[in-house]
Structures are given as C-alpha cells and as structure tokens.
C-alpha cells in the first residue's frame, strides 16, 4: 500500500515539476512529508 502511494506521489511530483507553481508545490511537498513521516513512524513501531 505504501509503495503504491509512493509511486503515485512520485508520478505527481514529476508532473508538478513541469509546471511553474512553486508555492503550491511547496505546500504539496510539506503535506507529503508530514504524511510520510507519520507512516514511517507507524511502520517502524511494528
């Protein structure tokens, strides 16, 4: 499940990089980072 999320994220990031909207991109990145940090913590605990 996490792998699927990551592939979707990376695909979207690649698409985003082609567009010059950095503030939206930064917001998007911070949301991804928060989400990934949460899932990483949960995975590490198991």
TrEMBL record:
Source organism, top-level taxon: Bacteria
Name by which UniProt lists this protein: Uncharacterized protein
């Amino acid at each position: 499940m996490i792998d699927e999320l990551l592939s979707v994220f990376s695909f979207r990031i690649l698409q985003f990089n082609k567009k010059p909207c950095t503030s939206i991109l930064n917001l998007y990145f911070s949301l991804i980072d928060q989400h990934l940090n949460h899932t990483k913590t949960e995975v590490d605990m198991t």
